[in-house]
Write a structure and sequence with these properties.
There is one protein chain. The chain is an alpha/beta fold and 347 residues long. It folds into 3 domains: 44 residues, 434 Repressor (Amino-terminal Domain); 135 residues, Response regulator (Rossmann fold); 136 residues, Response regulator (Rossmann fold), CATH 3.40.50.2300. Helices cover 44% and strands 14% of the residues. The chain has 12 helices and 12 strands. The chain has a 6-stranded parallel sheet with strand order 2-1-3-4-5-11, with helices on both faces. Helix 8 runs parallel beside helix 9. The radius of gyration is 26 Å and the shape is elongated.
């Protein structure tokens, strides 16, 4: 059936276009009888509003922008899934962009989203983001900004995060309770806050358990996501060259690094967990199907995405009502998942 427009509905009923428009939008100065006549005819004639015109009137695009470091990532795909569900339920479209851990690309993507007139932006920062002027541009434009997972603590906006320091601390304490004292850490790049916090949690677990921190047991990953599997194997090889007979366990910054590490050990007949224990971070689905399966930290990505969307829409409502926006930081709880790569008993 061919779609109609406001003028045709108004002409058919003998009303003005303004009256029809008010009836369709539920204005109180239009009688219930008139509203019913308009709504019934609109349904009969397959009328749908011109979204562009509606957006001009309401000053809303009904579009949300999301920037993530990579889409080929179990953690981020779960976050996106939750954001999409929440936005769809509210009648919003989502533009998803991938920075590829590239700061310059992230800046261009912010400019593009701003030029598209999105109502709000959610970002997990690239590992190489140090200058945050593009984030301040969003805030200065009056557009709500929510940072999640990889954040900058100095930006004044709402944030959704895990307590990475606490999660890392708990994971390493578990390795220590298993009897391990020489624990290596394959850490992330020096810049991202979550990488810093996981390293600090690792270090604090050692010192709190009277184990001297040895910087030679800490290896930095480039943290390019797609290369993490290969880098995990390379770091495991280097660790064995440096400390083969003097390391008990490894705590890695993410699960891809762990999987690459395990792959190297399996190929070189190094038994996990008998000879060396392994604990990852993120609880990728792959950690449950490797041999042996890998203990990991569950970040509850779906809850991160759901809360990020929830806070964004809360701020959009506050903005529409011309209310003061009070920034919030929400910490999504993590949990330890114990599998076969750790002995899971006190030695």
């Amino acid at each position: 059936m061919q779609k109609t427009n406001l003028k045709e509905i108004a002409k058919t009923l003998g009303f003005s276009v303004a009256t029809v428009s008010k009836a369709l939008n539920g204005y109180s100065d239009v009688s219930e009888k008139t509203k019913k006549l308009v709504l019934d005819l609109a349904e009969e004639l397959n009328y749908t509003p011109n979204s562009f015109a509606v957006n001009l009137r309401t000053k809303e695009s009904k579009t949300i922008g999301v920037i993530i470091p990579t889409m080929v990532h179990y953690f981020f795909s779960n976050i996106i899934d939750s954001i999409l569900k929440d936005c769809e339920e509210r009648g919003y479209m989502v533009i998803i962009m991938q920075s590829n851990e590239n700061y310059e690309l992230e800046k261009k993507q912010v400019d593009l989203l701003l030029s598209k007139g999105v109502d709000g932006i959610l970002i997990s920062l690239s590992n190489k983001t140090r200058d945050t002027s593009h984030l301040k541009k969003i805030i200065n434009s009056g557009i709500p900004l929510i940072l999640f997972d990889k954040i900058d603590k100095n930006i004044k906006c709402s944030k959704i995060i895990n307590d990475d320091r606490k999660a890392a601390y708990n994971a390493v304490c578990h390795l220590i309770k298993n009897g391990n004292k020489r624990i290596a850490h394959f850490r992330g790049a020096l810049n991202p806050q979550n990488s810093i916090d996981r390293f600090l949690g690792y270090k604090k677990a050692l010192t709190d358990n009277n184990i001297e921190y040895d910087p030679s047991l800490v290896y930095e990953c480039k943290n390019n996501n797609r290369d993490d599997f290969v880098e995990g194997a390379e770091l495991a090889k280097q660790l064995m060259i440096d400390h083969k007979d003097n390391v008990d366990a490894i705590f890695t910054v993410n699960d891809l690094i762990s999987i690459g590490t395990l792959n190297y050990f399996n190929r070189n007949n190094i038994k996990v967990p008998e000879e060396i224990e392994l604990f990852g971070f993120s609880n990728w689905f792959m950690t449950n199907v490797t041999t042996p399966s890998i203990s990991s930290v569950e970040q509850n990505a779906n809850k991160i995405g759901k809360k990020a969307a929830e806070i964004l829409f809360k701020e959009l409502e506050q903005k529409a009502n011309e209310e003061e926006i009070l920034y919030e930081t929400h910490i999504i709880e993590t949990e330890l998942i114990f599998r076969d790569s750790t002995s899971n008993k006190i030695k």
